[in-house]
Specification:
alpha+beta, 28% strand, single chain, seven-stranded antiparallel beta sheet
């Protein structure tokens, strides 16, 4: 089972400080859920990420990967290296969490957060395998913010 959720500010875009705290908070929850430490991959992009909802032929998927690689202007593995200047310059931000010890984690363990894009007030979370405790902890910690189902992405055009 996979799980999705979004957390949105009511009025203002997510700030750099909130971005950093949301990443740290989610990383801690995911590590508890997976039973192992996780590595981070943070990417700042100068345009929206192409996110196909299905797998296309190899040529199309290579085009998508190249498009996204060309849009990426900053990568790092530590949220403290993601400066306010990089945050402000980014059109879209992606954070990927993967278990460092795959043998200690559930099969296919993976987590993801996206920021900015078409929804600058929203952080969109994805977790597989799903863990209701992680989502409940996020909801409890952010009661004053709007909680969504996570199916409205920061890259959606509509």
């Amino acid at each position: 089972m996979d799980s999705r959720i979004s957390i949105s500010n009511w009025l203002r875009p997510i700030s750099h400080e909130l971005f950093q705290s949301l990443v740290i908070e989610f990383k801690e929850l995911v590590e508890t859920s997976f039973g192992t430490k996780c590595g981070l991959e943070l990417r700042a992009m100068n345009r929206l990420k192409l996110s196909p909802t299905m797998v296309f032929d190899d040529g199309t998927m290579e085009f998508v990967a190249q498009f996204n690689d060309e849009a990426t202007f900053f990568k790092c593995e530590n949220v403290s290296l993601f400066s306010p200047q990089i945050f402000d310059a980014a059109v879209y931000i992606e954070v990927v969490l993967r278990p460092q010890e795959k043998s200690s984690a559930p099969d296919y363990a993976f987590a993801h957060i996206e920021f900015k894009g078409r929804r600058p007030r929203q952080a969109t979370y994805y977790l597989q395998p799903g863990d209701a405790e992680v989502l409940n902890a996020l909801k409890a910690a952010h009661r004053s913010q709007r909680i969504g189902d996570g199916y409205t992405h920061n890259t959606d055009l509509g």
